[in-house]
Write a structure and sequence with these properties.
It is a single chain. Helices cover 32% and strands 15% of the residues. It is an alpha+beta fold and 180 residues long. The chain has a single domain, classed as Ribonuclease H-like superfamily/Ribonuclease H (Nucleotidyltransferase, domain 5), CATH 3.30.420.10. The strands form 2 sheets. Strands 1-2-3 form a 3-stranded antiparallel beta sheet, with helices on both faces. It has a two-stranded parallel sheet with strand order 4-5. Strand 2 and strand 3 form a beta hairpin. The longest helix has 16 residues. The protein is globular. The two termini are 12 Å apart. The relative contact order is 0.19. GO terms for molecular function: nucleic acid binding.
């Protein structure tokens, strides 16, 4: 399972370094965006046949304690139904992901099957490899969320939920392949 978080800004700001959206509109057209607009942080896991989560977080996940709390209260309970002892978990090298308490907990749940910084299977720092969350899911969801102006945070969350719910197994099969 690939996992990551992404910010969704109320104003529609998209980090162009991480997301490329190809479309039929004029690429030179622009719209003004509010700086420091309200935003939500969304965690998702992606498997070959399903999206795990999504979970909204209003606070920053800037510490291992906050990240572990989210894993224990939201992610791990949902994974228990899926027999987590048979799959791997990949995370990027964000500092909250590799704190000692997080690595210890992940080792309890994914013994020897954690892929990431400080884990049993390393994810190289500054790796040029991108995950299906980076090249598929994030762009797909942001494209669908921001096609029209967002009216408020609840509208933003509803659009994110709808976009993620529209991802089906056929879409994932074309974007997620396991060759371990």
């Amino acid at each position: 399972m690939f996992s990551d978080e992404a910010f969704f800004h109320f104003s529609g700001i998209v980090n162009r370094h991480n997301v490329r959206i190809r479309g039929s509109e004029n690429p030179r057209e622009y719209s003004e965006a509010q700086r420091d607009s309200p935003k939500v942080n969304v965690w998702c896991g992606l498997m070959h046949d399903r999206v795990i989560g999504h979970f909204f977080f209003t606070e920053k996940m800037d510490s291992s304690v906050v990240y572990l709390d989210k894993l224990e209260n939201f992610v791990f309970p949902q994974l228990e139904e899926l027999q987590p002892h048979v799959f791997f978990l990949q995370q990027d090298g964000a500092p909250p992901h590799w704190g000692t308490i997080v690595r210890s907990s992940l080792n309890d749940h994914f013994t020897g099957r954690g892929i990431g910084r400080g884990g049993p299977i390393p994810w190289p720092p500054r790796s040029p490899d991108i995950t299906p969350l980076d090249f598929f899911l994030r762009g797909f969801v942001k494209y669908n969320v921001y096609r029209r102006s967002v009216s408020n945070i609840d509208d933003l969350k509803a659009r994110i939920t709808t976009a993620i719910a529209s991802v089906d197994a056929d879409m994932l099969a074309g974007n997620v392949r396991y060759d371990l």
